[in-house]
Amino acid sequence: MNHVESQSPSLTVILWMAGAIASFCALASGGKVLSGIIPTAEILFIRSVMGLLIVSLALFYSGRRSAFKTENMRLQVFRNIFHYAGQYGWFLGFGFLPLAEVFALEFTVPVWTALIASTFLGETISAKKRFAIVLGLIGVLIIVQPGLQIVQPAALIVLAAAFCYAVSHSATKALSAYDSPMTVLFYMCLIQAPMGLVLSVFDWVWPDQIQLLWILIIALTALSAHFCMTKAMQCASVTTVVTMDFMRLPTIMVVGVVFFAERPEISLVIGGLFMLASNLVSVSRRR
């Protein structure tokens, strides 16, 4: 019997979430290292090509060739336009902001998702959801501190990236009625590769071997992060996963301090706690 499967469910989800957190931190570190050296569009292009190769081989050798076909190409394109924009803004943020601040602002995705669902999908926002949105927005204000200091454009870019991720997540949910997760992953790489090529062709910088290795790490950890998160969701409740996923923030703080000499502000910690509270309220069930 598989060793992990023989363990308790709590240990299983801890192991999957540890893999997800480690993957996200390695992914962010790669973006930080390459920031200002390799253009963002080029990183995303090479990453998409590598991801396309990996996913294609996995589908081919597992016999799941039906996953190469989508039942809703228009929705795939729509999703990937916003997902690409979200990734682009996320990677840009690494060049100007501490790693932990980028992660903290990314935790606004549930807030934007709720607002999008209410505005465009006609979903009703409950009192609990409204309270979660208020908590999330308070967290943003504490981190960004408008009026107390000059708001960095990079922070606004990351917030815009979080909004794009929210649109992408909503589209992913809609796609689940048509395509498998592997199909979504395949078309993510297939559609985003030419997008990255078009944006990078006039600003191409040939990466050296070390830089190419970092891009490979980015490609692999992007896939492993989402795989581990999906497996964790299968093993535990959304509340448990969201709570454990928040450990990304202190983990990336340590990475930033140790490897990039970053100094997180106390406002980031306080704002991050509001983000955690917002996410927990959002996913908690009524008793």
Automatic annotation (TrEMBL):
UniProt domain EamA: residue ranges: 13-144, 154-281
Membrane-related topology note: Multi-pass membrane protein
Entry superkingdom: Bacteria
Localization, UniProt: Membrane
SUPFAM superfamilies: Multidrug resistance efflux transporter EmrE
Main localisation: membrane
PANTHER family reported for this sequence: ACYL-MALONYL CONDENSING ENZYME-RELATED, SOLUTE CARRIER FAMILY 35 MEMBER G1
Name by which UniProt lists this protein: Riboflavin transporter
Organism: BD1-7 clade bacterium
Source lineage: Bacteria, Pseudomonadati, Pseudomonadota, Gammaproteobacteria, Cellvibrionales
